[in-house]
């Protein structure tokens, strides 16, 4: 048993030795080794191949000191001094080329990167003393810091600072050799354009903040050109729309895409001019890029939604214009399903646009967005804000696919007889019998009960209730009611017509007359004629009854007679 334990321990130690050996070999191939635990936490190199020379020396002891002095040397255009902060081990560059790389790197930091000075430690070991105790890097020494990230050929290229130490030298913070090697490719993509390079040197000097004089002049001009392109687009579409028939489909499409196309013209012109002639500095780009991308995405989604509406209207209007016909269940189902599909596609387009905006604009690395998201606060806020909206969207889809209320159905909602005109994301638009529009929340049609008069059979039993005197002869009323049921053209089944006493109170009895109509619209008119006919019949019988004690049909107020002696006694 002890021999087995010894063998396992020996195998474990051998594995650890192999792992350490492989790591050491890999670092040796890179030209660097990791310092031992008793030494400063640095990359040890055989020779630090940085620039430098005459001029103001840089402070390379801490990351913040190195960046501050490098940027100061760049403002003074002292590229020989600035090159001292760069590790040229991966480049084959002479003194002149090194100074040119230093100038390019300064331009990248000044133009395309927003440096977070608060995140740069001012300690040689780069320990973050302000980090929360929940941060795994709190209180931990570092030998590499990522300053920023830029996109290059579909991949993210970091701008890193590395702490290196040559034999017999002090640990120094410099731009890592990989970062220096990527400077030419990054500068070609993010550096000044040919047009900008042709500007006079005085216009390329810094005015204030990070803006150069040419940026102060160019930015309003770019906005004016974008506004001019947007105005031309708006007027052009409006002129083309005015030449078409207002009732035509293309007229509606042009009207729907006029504003999105105008936004696209403005943002597209702005983006093309920026990418072709001018490349604005980092902080300005950080503000304009998300706004520009937001306008482009909003415009594209608006145009796509207009095209989707056009296809929906084209597909539905070719079916029929008489959705409210009693036997038109097929077209009502078709309209309702198409409406649900349109809402689903609309939601997918909006979510895709928001997702693309978040990914393409790299918002997770700006404005503290990542801090909020990591704490879960943003997720809670969005979930709470979207809870009701998402619930309404799911309810509208549920109504459409369950077909509890279809477009064209006759429903009885909140004491009103209406037709369903539209099923939206958050509401249903109902048209009442007197052409009013009732806006009802979709939740009311999923969580509350309502009457659908055309769900299965559009025919409807219409009833009239009359209050008649207790002495009325109901059998005498059945004959005129039967006459009405047999002769009225809208009563589809006279055998179902019924006359019944359904209630009574101290004043009168309640008599109900019922007959079936083929649909709610026809039934309403028949209902009114039936009430009129039966009231007239009751009035004729009441007038022919003479004085009491003959039967009476219309209710009368009771008269109370009191004996005179009783009145005197009471008095």
TrEMBL record:
Its localization reads: Membrane
Transmembrane spans: 211-232, 253-273, 293-312, 344-361, 367-386
Broad class of the protein's primary localization = membrane
Checking Gene3D superfamilies in the record gives:
1.10.287.1260, 2.30.30.60
Mechanosensitive ion channel MscS domain location is 389-455
Cite a single GO MF annotation.
mechanosensitive monoatomic ion channel activity
According to its record, what are the GO cellular component terms? membrane
The signal peptide here is 1-28
Q: Which UniProt keywords apply?
A: Membrane, Signal, Transmembrane, Transmembrane helix
**SUPFAM superfamilies of this UniProt entry?**
Sm-like ribonucleoproteins
Q: Name one Pfam family in it.
A: MS_channel_2nd
Top-level taxon of origin? Bacteria
| UniProt-recorded name of the protein | Mechanosensitive ion channel protein MscS
Q: Please report the organism this UniProt entry assigns to the protein.
A: Aurantiacibacter zhengii
